[in-house]
Fold each of these.
Amino acid sequence: DTAVSQTPKYLVTQMGNDKSIKCEQNLGHDTMYWYKQDSKKFLKIMFSYNNKELIINETVPNRFSPKSPDKAHLNLHINSLELGDSAVYFCASSLGLGETQYFGPGTRLLVL
Amino acid sequence: SQQGEEDPQALSIQEGENATMNCSYKTSINNLQWYRQNSGRGLVHLILIRSNEREKHSGRLRVTLDTSKKSSSLLITASRAADTASYFCATVHSGNTPLVFGKGTRLSVIA
């Protein structure tokens, strides 16, 4: 059983489209995250939720909107996709903020 | 910036040799964590070391922490080709902030 899963694994889309990435964890963790990893492998946190509440919202364009329907799920919706949004997006979860994180396999987004 | 900095950026060694990677940071930490990322995969947690600890071991991995120098090192002994990956340090600063990742060290172990 995969602890942290993401769908889809690959996403190729046109500029201007709207897309969603889904994340689920079966670890019983309270805290979930979205990260963006650019082509230089730099990993930057975007959002963090604790018990379905947004606790961290880094400087991210408001075209990105996270949604946590329950503690086990954290989805990421992106409006009006731009070329610069092309990256790998990772979901992660942890027992609490600052604790060991468990990462999903990543979603490779390519905006054409 | 609180971001950790790994050194070296890239490291290439022969199988069986030891690999040492370093991480430096700028402000006080609660804990420091090391992660591994194989090509095309997600990050995998290796070791967490708290600010009051100086050394931790896990199998062939040894992590040290020197809070006076604001630095940590990851030693992989008797490296294997399967250790080829990028290694990231991540710091948690005072107030239990989220992890701040460095840019990683790309390790290549040649068989």
Amino acid sequence: DIQMTQSPSSLSASVGDRVTITCRASQSISSNLNWFQQKTGKAPKLLIYSASSLQSGVPSRFSGSGFGTDFTLTISSLQPEDFACYYCQQSYSTPTFGGGTKVEI
Amino acid sequence: QVQLVQSGAEVKKPGASVKVSCKASGYSFTNYGISWVRQAPGQGPEWMGWISAYNGNTDYAQKVQGRVTVTSDTSTSTAYMELRSLRFDDTAVYYCARDSGGAMVKVDMWGQGTMVTVSS
């Protein structure tokens, strides 16, 4: 299976900060990469699909980039409701998730 | 509105089986697939399997293959996930999710989750 490595595993930030999370695949996955946000006790929520496409209804402060093995999720100006855990997930082959990044105050 | 509603929490003994249902509404069931994803306490999500509601094709994670079966009933727009020979480490929240294309290509709607506890 393709391994997905996220960094950092956690970060502390303030409202208004620019936040970047990275995800590295163990082999090339083209642009078959999704990003999810998950809050405690809730199902994951799709933010970005196909590496850079913003899911309908998701605020434009979220953006994704990358191709091949290296990907990033950027939150341009962190809002109070963005404190959550973020996961990358590849769909190039048998789906696998990254280990998650917890965004805390 | 588009929603997936799952069956309620289950408590099972080791070696038993569990079957979780996922009823879809608000969209054309056969235009999408359904993926099943589980999340153990304090852990990240883990994909388990997928079914095309259009033709019944399935795909499973190697880790659970042989113990899991995913089915769907187009007459009731309901998908099912059965996991057999339960072990303690199968304790998790199990989610169904609406899937465009193949497994986890674009999952844009999730069920509320079903807690399955394996305990003696």
Amino acid sequence: GAVVSQHPSRVICKSGTSVKIECRSLDFQATTMFWYRQFPKQSLMLMATSNEGSKATYEQGVEKDKFLINHASLTLSTLTVTSAHPEDSSFYICSAILRRGYNEQFFGPGTRLTVL
Amino acid sequence: QQQVKQSPQSLIVQKGGIPIINCAYENTAFDYFPWYQQFPGKGPALLIAIRPDVSEKKEGRFTISFNKSAKQFSLHIMDSQPGDSATYFCAASTVGNTPLVFGKGTRLSVIA
């Protein structure tokens, strides 16, 4: 149990295009999901908190118009990188809370974004 | 953002050894302390977690020791194997559906 999937696992796009990354909780419902960004050999950097049915809460310094987050259902959150640039190239990882209030977070396998 | 300080940054042990990774936190409101294991190109996997009402928790070869007064917790890996070579992150959070605050990670290499 507690499986989180992400799609796609890898994506390469041209500068200026938009890319959508999906995060799904496969065997549980997640009212809260989180999106992280990770640079090589570094820790995870929280980008935003995604709550089902409400607007995402973005961390300081994260452009909400560039990184659009939609948590449309209890099992799906999406991150859209709009007008991507090479500096947006990174490893994007989502996590979902298994049980409300217990804060057990399970992570997806990550999405490697490369912007040319 | 409240910090979680993790050490060492990297660690090399021989097979069968017991690597120990330490973390210290500042926010006394933290009440959930998980450890994650991450292999290159993969997402972090939850290994083991502890809450402040216990001083130790063991799951298989992994043990968390927790010192509330010192605001420190550590991960011990018994009988380490080359397959344990990975990056380990400690984290902490407060009550509710709050984000985890991560340490900077420890790259563990277990050599045969």
